[in-house]
Structures are given as structure tokens and as C-alpha cells.
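Attaching the record inline, Q. Sequence:
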Amino acid sequence: MSLRTYIVRRLIIAIPTLLAISIITFSIIHMAPGGPLQFYLGLNPRTPPWMIEMLKKKYGLDKPIYEQYLRWLFMLIKGDLGYSYISGEPVSYSIGVRVWNTIKLTLASEVIALSIAIPLGVISAVKNNTLVDHVSRVFALLGVSMPIFWLGIMMIYFFSLYLGIFPTFGAATPGKVYSSIFEQWADELWHLVLPALTLGLVRTAFLTRLVRSSVLGELQMDYVLTARMKGLKERVVIYKHVLRNALLPVVTVVGLSLGFMLSGAVITETVFAWPGMGRLAVWSTFNRDYPMIMAITMIVSTMVVIFNFITDIVYALIDPRIRY
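Structure, as predicted:
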């Protein structure tokens, strides 16, 4: 199967999948108790009935649910995500100012996790049942068991409050005027360190265990014995042959998780007051902001589909036996 044919087939599958996700999400949020008008009623419990009816007509909430969905779907096809029921801002603008922060946090934490987990997992598997392996397994167990909000609070306490090295919140210094683009990048990078390190360490623990178990499984294969009998150096056997095959399950997990992580690491963003999509998703859900919830859901779903496709392509690059 050619790559073009494979892409077409994946698109044919992706379109009904995303359509089904949109229908299910739209139905669930409309069946949930309350609604976007609760926001107005909470601000002013004495809102007159005529104003409530006016708001319902303004947002189309007086229409049957299938008409509301079709109206939203036609707007989506035209590239219009609508307006927030709560803030009144265009949904595309609200997401646009936050999505880059979430992408930075996601990619930085994944780079930290992979750069630690892969070598640590390989060493742990090669030095199986030694002191190095035991220490690695304890570290992985602690990382998996440790609540991420507690780790984030400890990071803030030690590195921000006690040592005064890193800022405690935000993606940049509020109100700061930068003299150059490099000063802005440095400030944003300084704010990124603690959130990315917190999320990355939790990811490191899980990926370390995955890499270790995968490498251990590959070390039992016959091709490893054959390579050693040919006189290949152990480093070549491990990093050229074993690790390449052992990375397949790691690629699967990383590819799928990246799509979901773009919805925002909600807890990490909350602890560090990071202005990303995770906090926006929680805030929108609490306030029943239907257009915002639908937009975030569809963006995350699309990213999962895209990263799933990229994962399949990387499969073929890592393992030449896989063809489409």
C-alpha cells in the first residue's frame, strides 16, 4: 500500500470518528444539569424572565438540540468556532492566546521525560537486578505514586520560595517591558522550567518503567544472541538493535499521550497558574460554555488523530519490516 493510499484511508476513517465525537460531546454537555444562563443568574438572581428569553434566542438555546448541533456544525465547517457565552470573545481568540503556552509546556515536559527515561530504562534493563536497577525501579515507583499537585507545590516551595531561583506562577513576568525578543524568550523560558520539570518528572517515572520492560523483553530474543555471537560490541547490540525495537511501544504511548496532553495538564497549570488550555477547559466546563467546550474537544480529538497517524509513520522509520 502506498503512503498516499494509506493517508486517504486514514482520513476516511478520521472524518466519521471526529463527527461521532462531536455528536456525543454535544449531547452530553447539553444533558448535563444547568446551562450557560446560570452564569448570568448567578451574577444577578433577579434577572427578569424576558431577559432570559432574549439570551436564549441570542445563543440559539431555544431551538431543539439537533438544530443547535447542525448550526454549530455548519459554522465549524466554515471555520467559525463561535463566541464564548461567558466572556463574549471569539472562541478562536481565547484558544489562540493559550494554545501556544500548552504546546510549550507539553513539548518541554516530554523532552525532559524522554531524555531521562530512555537512558535510565536501558541501563536499568541491562543492569537487571543490580543496585542501579533497584534504584531506578524505586525512582519510577515513587514518581508514579507521587501526586503531581504535591510535587508542584514542593517545587514552588523549594526553588521559588526557599531558594528564590524561579518564579512561582504565570508564563511571563506581568507588566514587564522587554528590551529585545531574546529577553522575552529568556523570561518565558525561566517561567517554563518548574511546570515542565514537574510534569516531565511524572512522565519520566512511567516511561522509565515502560522502556525497562520493553528492553528486557528484547534482550530475550534470538537475534540478540546471534549479534553477540558475531562479536558485535555490547553497546552496538543494545543501542543499534535492541533499543530500536524496544522503542516501538514507547512511540505508541508518547504519540497518543501528546495529543491528549494538548488539552492541557490541568493540575500542573492550576498549581503554577499557567495560562493554558487545561485551565480554560475546566473553567469552560464549570460555566457550561458550550462553544468553548466543543472547540477544545474537537481540537484535542483532531490532535489525537494526527499524532496517531504520525506514530504509524514513525513505526515504519524505526522498524523497516512495517510497511503500509
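The radius of gyration is 24 Å. The longest helix spans residues 181-219.

More tomorrow.
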